[in-house]
Structure formats: structure tokens, C-alpha cells
């Protein structure tokens, strides 16, 4: 199965799982603790949230932001996010994150449990999109599963792109992209792309804060500033 076919199946899964999506947040204390970590992170200004899901993180971002633009490709989870989020500073957008390009820049780009769903071959383009979305001085903040989480997934073997099998209550099953990034390797990869990055582990997950490479124009402007 190539990346396109796998991503199509992944999209179908997230549309179908909407009614079950929030269950882990109610069942796992580690996830509840991760949600609380938002209050300790440098989230500020205008925030872009990628793959917002049902809005579990969106409401917490809104409490710290000037505005939040929350993007997801699945209409079914977006409907739940809109119902959960009453804040007037939040705007929801339905868009395929592998095709969508932001039309403006943001002080913070945030994504939780999304990076692991990006095929490795598409990671450089993804990070370029994040960099293009950040205003000068802006930060990317991300949270996801580390390697220990593989023990709780049904990992698909003999697959060119790392993948896992997810099953729903109705018995249907879907393959999704699932890359269990090692924090140090991810930090090294981002550094090689020119990012400044700090990643720490927390209960089998990792939390990253990264600043993009300074473009030639920004570097010149910074040097010229008094």
C-alpha cells in the first residue's frame, strides 16, 4: 500500500471514529495530564492548530491565545469540536493538511498526536509548511506518542510506511500511518533541517518546542534592527 492509499484509509478512519474519538481522553490519566501541560507551554498570540480533532486541545489553546484557527480534514470530528468550543476567538476550517497552505502567519503552530500520522517521506514538506505558517519569533509546539506507545497498538508489519491497524466498535478496521518517533532522533532530524528544538519525554509521550530556520530576509531584518 502506497502513502496515498494509506492516507485515504486514514482519513476514512478519522471520519468513522468521531463518536469514539474522545474515549481515550476519559479513560487514560496520562492523557488528562498531557492536556494540563498546555498551561505550561509558551502558547501565545495567534495560534494555528493542526489536526484539531474534536477540540480537546482547542479550548485550552483558546484560553491562552489571542485567536485560534483550528484545522482538520474530517467534517465529523469538526462538528464535535464546534459543539464543544464556545469561544468567539476560535475559527474552524475543514482542509486536508497534506494539501492546505495557510494564508497568513501565526505566533504559535500547535499539533497534538498528528506528527505520528505524517508519512516519513512527507515530513520535510510538512515542516516547511509549519515554518511558512510561523511569524518571525514564532514557535511550533507538538505532542505525540513515543516508541513505548507501540506496545498498545496493533502495528502493521511488511509495510513501507509505518502503520497500525485500528478497530472500531462496529467491527470495522482501518490502517493508519503511525510513526513512533524517538525524541532524540526527531530532535536530530529537525536540527538537520535547520530548526532549533527542545523535546522532552512525559509518560511515554514527547513534548516538543521548535523554532524554524531564519530565512535570509528575516536574518537581514534582524541584523538591521537597532
Can you tell me about this structure?
By secondary structure, this protein is α/β, with parallel strands linked by helices. 32% of the residues lie in helices and 27% in strands. It contains eight helices and ten strands. Strand 2, helix 5 and strand 3 form a beta-alpha-beta unit. The longest helix is centred in the N-terminal third of the chain and has 14 residues.
Mind sketching the topology for me?
Layout lengths: L2 H14 L6 H5 L1 H9 L8 E5 L7 H5 L4 E6 L2 H10 L5 E5 L11 E7 L10 H11 E12 L8 E3 L6 E5 L5 E5 L5 H10 L3 E7 L2 E7 L4 H9 L2
Parallel strand pairs: 1-2, 1-4, 2-3, 4-5
Antiparallel strand pairs: 5-10, 6-7, 7-8, 9-10
Choose one word for the global shape: globular
In the predicted model, the low-confidence regions spanning at least 5 consecutive residues are: 219-226
Q: Kindly report how far apart the N and C termini lie.
A: 55 Å
Q: Give the strand order, joined by hyphens, for the main sheet.
A: 3-2-1-4-5-10-9
Q: What's the story with the biggest beta sheet? A: 7 strands, mixed
Order of helices and strands: HHHEHEHEEHEEEEHEEH
Strand content: 25-35%
- Secondary-structure-derived class: alpha/beta
Helix content: 25-40%
Using only C-alpha atoms, the radius of gyration works out to 17 Å
Q: Work out the helix count.
A: 8
Summed over residues and divided by their number, the pLDDT gives a mean of: 93
Beta strands, count: 10
Structure described in brief:
By secondary structure, the protein is of the alpha/beta class. The protein has helices at residues 3-16, 23-27, 29-37, 58-62, 75-84, 123-133, 183-192, 216-224, and strands at 46-50, 67-72, 90-94, 106-112, 134-145, 154-156, 163-167, 173-177, 196-202, 205-211.
Amino acid at each position: 500500500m502506497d502513502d496515498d492509499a494509506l492516507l485515504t484509509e486514514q482519513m476514512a478512519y478519522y471520519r468513522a471514529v468521531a463518536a469514539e474519538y474522545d474515549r481515550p481522553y476519559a479513560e487514560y490519566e496520562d492523557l488528562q495530564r498531557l492536556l494540563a501541560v498546555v498551561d505550561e507551554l509558551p502558547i501565545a498570540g495567534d495560534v494555528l492548530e493542526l489536526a484539531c480533532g474534536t477540540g480537546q486541545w482547542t479550548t485550552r489553546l483558546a484560553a491562552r491565545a489571542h485567536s485560534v484557527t483550528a484545522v482538520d480534514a474530517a467534517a465529523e470530528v469538526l462538528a464535535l469540536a464546534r459543539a464543544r468550543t464556545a469561544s468567539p476567538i476560535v475559527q474552524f476550517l475543514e482542509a486536508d493538511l497534506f494539501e492546505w497552505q495557510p494564508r497568513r502567519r501565526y505566533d504559535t503552530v500547535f499539533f497534538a498526536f498528528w506528527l505520528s500520522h505524517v508519512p516519513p517521506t512527507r515530513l520535510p514538506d510538512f515542516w516547511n509548511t509549519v515554518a511558512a505558517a510561523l511569524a518571525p519569533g514564532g514557535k511550533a509546539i507538538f505532542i505525540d506518542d513515543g516508541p513505548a506507545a507501540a506496545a498498545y497498538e496493533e502495528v502493521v508489519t511488511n509495510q513501507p510506511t509505518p502503520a497500525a491497524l485500528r478497530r472500531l466498535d462496529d467491527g470495522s478496521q482501518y490502517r493508519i500511518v503511525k510513526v513512533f518517533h524517538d525524541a532524540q532522533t526527531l530532535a536530530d532530524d529537525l536540527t538537520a533541517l535547520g530548526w532549533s528544538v527542545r523535546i522532552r519525554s512525559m509518560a511515554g509521550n514527547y513534548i516538543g518546542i521548535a523554532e524554524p530556520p531564519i530565512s535570509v530576509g528575516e536574518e537581514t531584518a534582524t541584523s538591521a534592527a537597532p
